[in-house]
Structure prediction request, 613 residues.
Amino acid sequence: GITGWINWKDDLTPKRFILEKMAETLSCRGPDAGGIWLSAQAGLAHRRLIVIDPEGGSQPMVRQYGEGQYVITYNGELYNAPELRRELETKGHHFLSHSDTEVILIAFIEWGVTCVKRFNGIFAFAIYNDKDQQLFLARDQLGIKPLFYANCRDTFLFGSELKSILAHPGIQPEVDATGLAEIFLLGPARTPGQGILRGVAELKPGHYLIYDRKGIQIRRYWTLESKPHRDDLKTSALTVHHLLREAVKGQLVSDVPICVLLSGGLDSSAITAFASQELARNGQGPLYTYAVDYVDNEQYFRPNHFQPNADAPWVQKIASLFNTRHQTVFLDTPALADALPIALKARDLPGMVDIDASLYLFSREVKKGATVALAGECADEIFGGYPWCRDNNVLSTGTFPWMRMISERLLLFSPELLKYIRPQEYLAQRYQEALAEVPCLPGENQAEKQMRQLLYLNITRWMPVLLDRMDRMSMAAGLEVRVPFCDPRLVEYAWNIPWAMKNCDQREKGILRLALKGMLPDEVLSRRKSPYPKTHNPTYLETVRLWFERLIDDSSSPLRQLVNIDSIRTLINTKASAFNPAWFGQLMGGPQLFAYLIQVNTWLKEYKISFHL
Prediction:
């Protein structure tokens, strides 16, 4: 993880201890090493998870060029580093290490801010030019790696996570109407760029920021572009196959043990197939795979619209087919509830509760055997795999399709809170903002235009929820997860495949199924989408319900002033059954509503959040 501090007025050198404290908050992200670079006006810090070049990749990394000194702190992996390195060497640059950190730094020295347009990877980094007294921040195209910043008076702070910024004494954790609206209306999703806390922002995906004595400039360097799709169905499927294979191949680069997170679904099975073949081609292997399941789920699992079948039989089928060294991690229900505060601390915000907690516990077990994992995340966003992509009425609801039971949820909140956050106005504003961004294609019919809008919402508003979850929960356990489906080349190509082609054979992700024909068994190719597994044990519901009841009975609970106590009592007495099977996404039902409100209360209390009214 990365963090840093710029101040044009004060001398920072006696305040090294503050920078150390900021960096220490990120030690879970970077358990292997740490470093600090400090001058009078700037301080950069780094916590390292060693993946490439253990000896030469120490950070912050400093390079002298001309009269200037350039310093970088960087979190991520640059998959096209070897090609860029060769190109930079032809321009006369010399490298002192094999690390991708140095490639990014020298690319910036050579090409300036336009260097980011050449990068294919997952990254958030800061480069400080000591001579020009200028800071450059950048974040990858799809926001796989996080980056937050705060600018207050003469102090500019940045960090991989909110906790690193909050460790600075100049930042007070406050929320205003916007922050509360994000938590209670959109949560656990967030509007791009929102840091939730007052005065704190997130650098949006595909953007860079320049900070100097004149102030802040923010520029977008990448976005989805709508173009006519010229390829026929067969060519499109072959291209998807090729781009995904290349993405997996590039993301297998590592100097430490690597594995695949396998659910037995189409997406993770595809990653397993490509990774297994690539390792075999290079005389490496076998491939290690990991799956997650829950104690007693065989007993309690019941199919529903969102979860049509259990994963276990499918996992075994794929693991056997590709001869992987497979391990299934079994989680017990009490551990999920116990890990809710850990998941909150990893996110610094209320999140996807037990779905977060289970990923953290799973990552902790995977970390015992691997440092890097590949996952099948984000195929559904890119190819339109969600149930709401087949709902003809979804755009007529006038809000984000993963948000349900909004009016029922509003009954839970106090009249004062509702008056303050103006929920209907806020939701309508955020939804219309999102639709206004969609790059429409002239000549598209209404149906194609609506699907483009829906897929844009998927990629820019829903996908960050899952990417945030994947990054925070895995990195809290010191595990780096890579997502080949988020390769920008694949995302750009898939974006312009017409919906009729994406949905070929009238199947969700039909084009992807066609692209994988011959690689995976037909029964896997025809398996219905099933989301990340969750516990179905009724003891989890009872655990969080009783926990929430105790919290509401406690007069010191900060949540009490924000809710309608009568409605909350009804919620407790009815076991939140009205919110099943899901009020958010596909997995967050009644039990998760209790857990989410528990996390909100814990967040307000533990983070000492004050209200700016």
Observations:
- The two ends are 33 Å apart (CA to CA).
- The mean pLDDT is 94.
- The first strand starts at residue 2 and ends at 7.
